[in-house]
From TrEMBL:
Protein name: Penicillin-binding protein
Gene3D superfamilies noted in UniProt: Biosynthetic peptidoglycan transglycosylase-like (1.10.3810.10), DD-peptidase/beta-lactamase superfamily (3.40.710.10)
Transmembrane segments: 68-94
GO cellular component, one term: outer membrane-bounded periplasmic space
Entry similarity comment: In the C-terminal section; belongs to the transpeptidase family.
Keywords: Carboxypeptidase, Cell shape, Cell wall biogenesis/degradation, Glycosyltransferase, Hydrolase, Membrane, Multifunctional enzyme, Peptidoglycan synthesis, Protease, Transferase, Transmembrane, Transmembrane helix
Region described as Disordered: spans on this chain: 1-64, 683-750
GO biological process terms, semicolon-separated: cell wall organization; peptidoglycan biosynthetic process; proteolysis; regulation of cell shape
Organism taxonomic ancestry: Bacteria, Pseudomonadati, Pseudomonadota, Alphaproteobacteria, Hyphomicrobiales
Organism superkingdom: Bacteria
Biological source species: Methylosinus sporium
Pathway assigned in UniProt: Cell wall biogenesis; peptidoglycan biosynthesis
Amino acid sequence: MAREKQRREPRFDGDGGGDLRADPREDRMAKPKRKGKSAPGKSAPPPEEDDAPPQRSMPKKAKKGGRFGLGGLVYWGAVLSIWGAIGVGGLFIYHAAQLPPIDTLAVPKRPPNIAILAADGELLANRGDTGGAAVRLRDLPPYLPKAFVAIEDRRFYSHWGVDPIGIARALTRNLTGRGGMQGGSTLTQQLAKNLFLTQERTLSRKMQEAILALWLEHKYSKDQILELYLNRVYFGSGAYGVEAAAQRYFGHGAAQVTLAEAAVLAGLMKAPSKLAPDRNPEGATERAAQVVTAMAQEGHITEAMAKLALGRPALARRERGAGSINYAADYVMDMLDDTIGAIDQDIVVTTTLDRRLQEVGEKSIAEELDKKGEKFGVSQGALVALDPNGAIRALVGGRNYAESQFDRAVSAKRQPGSAFKPFVYLAGLEHGLTPDTVREDGPINVKGWQPENYSREYFGPVTLTKALALSLNTVAVRVGLEAGPKAVVKIAHRLGVASELQPNASIALGTSEVTPLELVTAYAPFANGGVGVQPHIIVKVRTAGGKQIYARRGSSNGRVIEPQYVAMMNTMMEETLSTGTARKAELPGWRAAGKTGTSQDFRDAWFVGYTPHLVAGVWLGNDDNSPTKKVSGGNLPVEVWSRFMKAAHQGVPVAALPSGSWRSAAAPADSLSPIAPLLDFFSSDPEPDAPPPRPSRRRQVRDEDEDVAPGSVHGLEALMPPADIPSQTPRPRRGPSREEKNIFEKLFGG
């Protein structure tokens, strides 16, 4: 041990340990080699193999694994991820630059909706770009929003606007072809697309959609986003928002939808037009079943609820009055512009319309045209019904709204024919005539214009009552000339006709065009005792929150007919329904009055009739103004009117039309028929019917006896007099006219 610990000193002799002297070749330090360079003209000597420092060799496998093994994969994966993130970030920055600045971005205001209600508060229609009002999430049944979450975005409450898991799942399904094509968009992304972007399918749009979805998630809560979504997305058939869709497909608001109906609505998001329940009930039911199943899987509903919904699938409602109610709704929109001006929020409009009468009016016209339209060559119709105070109860603008949106009740100007004659006779009464005044029914020549009766036959001397009831043209022209065409026009305007009227002799035969609404409005004073009315359809307007912004005040045009003349006209027009051209009109228990009308060549057929409860007018004809096959006011229009008025008067207490002892308060005695005092003496009835005149050719009045004269007068030009007819002024009269003497002589042989 001691020997081993003994220090050994180096030896410098040649015996052991080797020569320690420096080698001349190594007595200077070697300079470091510069790669690729050497002294000019010299090349570095290669190191001798024996003198090279020993190299530790590594196994080849170990060297390869160090460079390309698991660590290398992690390294390069990290590198690629970084560059990918940079690339995606660059794309986001680029596409974000195409959007407006985020600090100025705002959710676009929802287009206002106009809810149109009947007089009893029932919803009739929605107008506006959305088709329905906005609803609050808390007002909906809980299963309704959950249906959309379950089928469209199950991770809605856990992601932050964009769902990578959902995108990956959609890509997987798309690549494997399982489950159909999947979009991977969240509800927030769908909302962003609906609010800010177009429907184009491009990478740029998807990138912007994701950016906007992130912004929405940052700015709004999940419930706010879901509420926005339910009020903005498209459900097909012109319905934007869940309220509009519920009304459109099921006839009630979103707050009342059942679980099965909620599943149908949520299922529409896949293909709104293709899966609409009113067009494709089988497809809608199948998709709704998928929604119910998804809701059960997510725990939103119980198994029992799911079985009940699957066993009783929702069915779309059948449209009630869908066609005609749109004519009325369009008219409401036209009137709103004048009533409250620009609309910038959801509003609720209460109208004067009666849903039941609207449907009865539509059905009455449709049934008549379906049954007799082809036979009589008539294709269109219109109906207007007013309360005597001017409130519009029904407005049917055509046979089928889906085929034609043109509102004939409001916008079509047509010749009223003899339906215009009440204004002529009223002018005569105000001029001094009475219902018993006698005028000659015979040929007449007005500066070369020779109007005739339909049959080209004449009755001779007749009372004005019978002349109006039988719609005798020659008597109407005589009365019109006697009162003056300008006076006739003035009275028509005073009573409610707004269209321009030509003050010439032919005005007595209704050759100036008017609309059905105008004509019915002008008849209202006869029903209400002589007060001019303003036709109106809007009662009040309020915001969706309940604030009232308009309320109609009771207003009229004041008295436009003196009471005694109202009584006279009602007596005369009641005769039209008793013995005249409208005797086919049926309204059991009621005394009604009215007037038929037929324009030249049977192009337009009218009947306007009234009771103290309702004034209604019917027009039938063709849009191209082509002649019908002898449709007159006394046949098809009277049938439509009778069907409508019977339904309208069900349960209404019977009342009499305004009347009075007009004979004692009428114009001077010399204008009365000479038989009137005798009739008054023998009768206690203050309004006795005038005795029937004897036809000059002993013939019976036919249904088609009207103001037309085919074969002798064709078109409006033939009815126009060749020169202006001056307005006539009243002339004092000293005794009974020759016509009155003639009828007196005929009746009593004098």
